[in-house]
Amino acid sequence: MSTTAQQEVNAPASVTTGDFVWHELRTTDAKGAEAFYTHVIGWKTKDSGDPGGIPYKLFSVGGLDTAGMMELDQPMLDAGMRPAWVGFIGVKDVDADAKRVEQAGGKLHCAPQDIPGVGRWAFVEDPQGAAFLLFKGSLDYAPPRPPMGTPGTVGWNELSANDEKTAWPFYSSIFGWNEDRTMDMGPMGTYRIFNNGGAALGAVMTRDPANSPVPFWLYYFNVEDIDAATTRVKEKNGQVCMGPHQVPGDLWITLSIDPQGAMFALVGPRKP
Fold first, then answer.
1. Residues 6+ apart with CB under 8 A from 192
2. How far is CA 149 from the centre of its chain?
3. Which pLDDT belongs to residue 117?
4. Across the chain, how many H-helices and E-strands are there?
5. Which of 7, 53, 122, 268 gives 2 a disulfide partner, CB atoms 3.0 to 4.6 angstroms apart?
6. 10 Å Cβ neighbour count for 243?
7. Cβ-proximal residues to 238 (8 Å cutoff; 6+ apart), any chain
8. Residue 49: pLDDT above 90?
């Protein structure tokens, strides 16, 4: 992540632990991914403006930045990184929480690092193998973000774990997440919806081995019309793996893979 991009993700020093403060696409073809996502989701893009760092694109909605994108270089690929969306979770002490992750059985992929005047971050993995980032900003303010629910923003953060029942205690103890409610999915087990003291942020579930070979975080992007957006995925050579499928709240979801191999989801209404 570039310095300017870190400034965009930067959360206040007083950030509430457990908020998702940024989402980032890591891809093998930034130009191709830009063409895909601007068509599918309607984002505008701009360079981060940091010529000294790794080239970084910012995705925006209504002039407000909502996500970022970086291209994986060969050393990153050699280290095992692959195309994926990743989430940054705000914390008050990156070093302390990185140690807590390790003590709880997780792994540290990238040790805590500073970007002077911007913030501190670490790349970690939960005990079951799902990756995410810890982040603490060093500024006393955060850039404005689009309102929750705005098309083009992340509307849901969903963990597909090896075992939901043991994954939940890990995250709730590290970040203080609260159980909002649960849904019985029959043979698929419990869908545990969580919040961080406010509106629901996402859910934890046990993955279906047939569709999810490894544990991972899946991010849902809000769209105005689920059918139109699903068509746009296909128009740009993305793969639609599931849906549209109706969920509570009169919304519909699809699960897709972009042309470079990163999995993502869309959520929105089905228009007449």
1. 164, 168, 179, 182, 203, 204, 205
2. 15
3. 61
4. 6, 16
5. 53
6. 18
7. 36, 40, 256, 257, 258, 259
8. no
Q: What region, left, alpha or beta, does residue 34 occupy, with left being phi > 0 and alpha being psi -120 to 50 degrees?
A: alpha
In tens, the pLDDT along 140-162 reads 656 677 778 889 999 999 999 99
pLDDT class of 119 with cuts at 50, 70, 90: confident
The vertex-77 CA angle with 67 and 28, nearest 5°, equals 45
Token pair in block for residue 70: 């970086």
Q: Domain 154-268: which topology?
A: 2,3-Dihydroxybiphenyl 1,2-Dioxygenase; domain 1 (3.10.180)
Q: What is the pLDDT of residues 158-179, one digit of tens each?
A: 999 999 999 999 999 999 999 9
For every residue of 93-107, DSSP letters joined together read: -HHHHHHHHHHTT-E
d(CA 161, CA 163): 5
pTM, two decimal places: 0.91
Q: Where are the domains of the chain?
A: 3-137, 154-268
The correct answer on CATH 3.40.50.980 for the domain covering 3-137 is no
- Give the model's pLDDT for residue 5: 45
